[in-house]
Structures are given as C-alpha cells and as structure tokens.
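hi! just following up on the protien thing from before. the input was this:
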Amino acid sequence: MALSGGGPHLGLIVLALVVVQIGFGGYGIVLKYFAQDAKADSLVFSICRDGFAAPVLILAAAVAERGIWLPRLSDLPMFFLLGLTGMFGNQVGLGN
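and the predicted 3d structure came back as:
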C-alpha cells in the first residue's frame, strides 16, 4: 500500500522511523558512558552533540526538501527559543 501521490510504501516509512529512534537511543547511551568516564561537563557535551548534529540535519532537510530554505528574519527569535528550551535545554537538564 503506497501513500497517496505515489510516495514511499508505508512500511518503509515506519521502518525508517524505528531505525532513527533506535539510533538516537543507542547514541545517547553509548556516549553517556564515554562522557562519564572522561568527566566531561554536561554543557560542553551538549554543545558538541548539537554542533555535530546540525550539519547532518541540514543535509537531511536539504535532500528531503530539494533545496535549502532560509527562515524569515522574524522567525529567528522563535527558532532560538525553541532550540534553547527544546533540544539544548533537554540535553543539559537530563545530563545533570
């Protein structure tokens, strides 16, 4: 059963979502042990994780959207707030 519009098969989409969830879960567990052994600061660790993830996410968005779309200038404060409280804040809060 394909999605309307001739998109990928629903099973492939679900499989991709499961693989990504397992990857994110395993990534955090493995790197947590390395960070604890090295006594890494959770703030620096979170900044490094976001810094390494950003290019991968930009590339994935460019491939999915067939180009890079820049946000409007008026949207930047909301992007900053959501990134600070969502991704970064969650990682730093869970690291302590």
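Helices lie at 10-37, 42-65, 76-95.
The chain has two domains: 1-39, 41-96.
cheers
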